[in-house]
Design brief:
48% helix; single chain; mainly alpha; elongated; Helicase, Ruva Protein, domain 3; 493 residues; Rossmann fold; 11 strands; 3-stranded antiparallel β-sheet; two-stranded parallel ribbon; RNA-binding
Length: 493
RNA sequence: GGUUCCUUCGUCUAAUGGUUAGGACAGGAGAUUCUCAGUCUCUAAAUAGGGGUUCGAUUCCCCUAGGAACUACCA
């Protein structure tokens, strides 16, 4: 039987790291098995639904290069793939269960339910959940409620005796006593929409899903779903509950740990291949030593046996490292293209960029590329070119081991050596030697000469290497800034 | 509270009865005769605790401890 798996998010928020990891595992498993990857939109929560979330889902998967074989937009034999478009289906199945006595109408108000919950909490009762008030209504009672115009929900009758077991590929058998399963959960809401449990089971069956790969937070409802499959007389798919992605504090990863929306990572300048590579490695490994994987490689070598059982902490720093690696591995041309929007947003260059600006970016990329963790780092790294804000604090010009007097001398004479050398087209190495010689003469370290020059030119103690900076700025601007730097240092207090 | 799941360096993980317990990130030290970054080299760092089984346990079993998830007309 061909593998058919699905990613079935609810469009109630932006796609986040945890969700996307589930999508990736499903996708890679399908590809590695020659199976199908299906996208299904579970938009049954009308309160929390948003168009923005749906668009974010599509654009995020597109950005990551995850294509679905069946689903919205592309269609397929089991459509529609958006649950709100399958609305009538769920009521039919729910009412079938009612007819068979496996489910029943419930007219309890939200207030009554709240009251029941409160009393259970106060009495510290072990028993939690619905009290099955409507489980055995007479026809008269039902008719009375209907007369009052109360819109009922449909609840699934969970057995109070016995136990239910399901097999998980990672966890093995998981058994729960039926009396511990949430008593008679709602499967069809009063607005006519199904809840997750009903819609999920029906669609997975109708769409021929063979393996359900979802986060471990779903383990507790596994037995309920098995009961539902049995009620319909359907085969239960294979389960594979994925380890959760946690924050530093060991709790489920969420906004308070930092960015979790993939869109945010994209905006900061993370590359899709870095996200894919790192996120896949959170909870999965091939052999414990291979760490770089392209999406194409993962489509071939992904295995369920490499998935870990225990939850994994998401390490932002390691993602940064991966991203830096991928930036350095990318071509200069690609980085130039990717960095351009950030420079435009900073107001450094025009949109669209002029030819001169494009040429400048091309020269900027090689030195900057070595120093970036994320693409947006290009902005602070190149700001000195576009914004001229001289350093007025004289101590910044003074290197460790030097003093103000020697620094003035170093900048003054160093500038002459530099400008004369540059203007006459001398070798960079030769100029460097002369600058080093000057340092020796002054009795300071080489940096004692370089630092004031770099600060004058790049307006910062931390900058690109001197000659890269000069190349980007041009000789005339370099000279201007050097003279100004000198005047700042020589200015009397 | 109840139910279920989990437990190797700070973090991600490798090793499924026999290894000096391996790799990576982060940390520390050094090199690269300009800062920063990058790169390279070196370094420190773990089998939660207690019982078994066994000639031998990270690995199998039990208990304890800790952590997490779930316990909605949300998914």
């Amino acid at each position: 039987m061909d593998v058919r798996v699905r990613y079935a998010p609810s469009p109630t928020g932006l796609q986040h790291i945890g969700g996307i990891r589930t999508a990736l595992y499903n996708y890679f498993f399908a590809r590695s098995q020659g199976g199908s990857f299906i996208l299904r939109v579970e938009d049954t929560d009308r309160e929390r639904y948003s168009d923005e979330s749906l668009e974010d889902l599509y654009s995020t998967l597109d950005w990551l290069g995850i294509r679905w074989d069946e689903g919205p937009v592309v269609g397929g034999p089991c459509g529609p793939y958006i649950q709100s478009e399958r609305f009538d289906l769920y009521r039919e199945y729910a009412e079938q269960l009612v007819r068979e006595g496996k489910a029943y109408y419930c007219y309890c108000s939200a207030e009554r339910l709240e009251e029941v919950r409160k009393q259970q909490a106060e009495s510290k009762s072990e028993y939690q959940g619905y009290d099955r008030h409507c489980a055995h209504l007479t026809d008269e009672e039902r008719a009375e409620y209907e007369r009052q115009g109360i819109k009922p929900v449909i609840r699934f009758r969970v057995p109070t005796e016995g136990k239910t077991t399901f097999h998980d590929i990672l966890m093995g058998d998981i058994t729960r006593r039926n009396r511990d399963i949430s008593p008679d959960p709602i499967i069809l809401k009063s607005d006519g929409f199904p809840t997750y449990h009903l819609a999920n089971v029906i669609d997975d069956h109708l769409m021929g899903i063979t393996h359900i790969m979802r986060a471990q937070e779903w383990i507790p409802s596994g037995p309920l779903h098995v009961l539902l499959y049995q009620a319909f007389g359907w085969d239960v798919p294979q389960y594979c509950h994925l380890p959760m992605v946690m924050g530093k504090d060991g709790q489920k990863l969420s906004k308070r740990h930092g960015s979790t929306a993939v869109r945010d990572f994209r905006a900061k300048g993370y590359l899709p291949e870095a996200i894919i590579n790192y996120v896949t490695l959170v909870g999965w490994s091939l052999d414990g030593s291979t760490e770089f994987f392209t999406r194409e490689e993962l489509e071939k070598c992904f295995t369920l046996s490499g998935i870990h059982k225990s939850p994994a902490v998401f390490d932002y720093k390691k993602l940064d490292w991966f991203n830096g690696q991928y930036i350095r591995a990318a071509s200069d041309e690609r980085i130039a293209d990717l960095v351009t929007p950030y420079l435009q947003e900073a107001g450094f260059i025009h949109d669209p960029a002029t030819e001169d600006e494009k040429a400048l970016i091309a020269r900027l990329v090689p030195p900057v590329k070595e120093r970036m963790k994320v693409l947006s780092d290009a902005v602070p790294l190149s700001a000195f070119i576009f914004r001229d804000e001289p350093v007025m604090d004289r101590s910044v010009y003074v290197a460790k081991g030097s003093d103000e007097e020697k620094t003035v001398e170093a900048l003054s004479r160093g500038s002459e050596i530099l400008l004369a050398g540059l203007r006459s087209g001398r070798e960079q190495a030769a100029i460097e030697e002369d600058l080093a010689a000057l340092a020796g003469e002054l009795g300071i370290k080489v940096n004692g000469v370089f630092q004031p020059i770099r600060v004058a030119i790049t307006n910062s103690a931390v900058s690109l290497p001197l000659f890269d900076s000069i190349g980007l700025l041009g000789l005339d601007e370099t000279e201007r800034r050097l003279r100004r730097g000198l005047s700042i240092l020589e200015e009397k207090q």
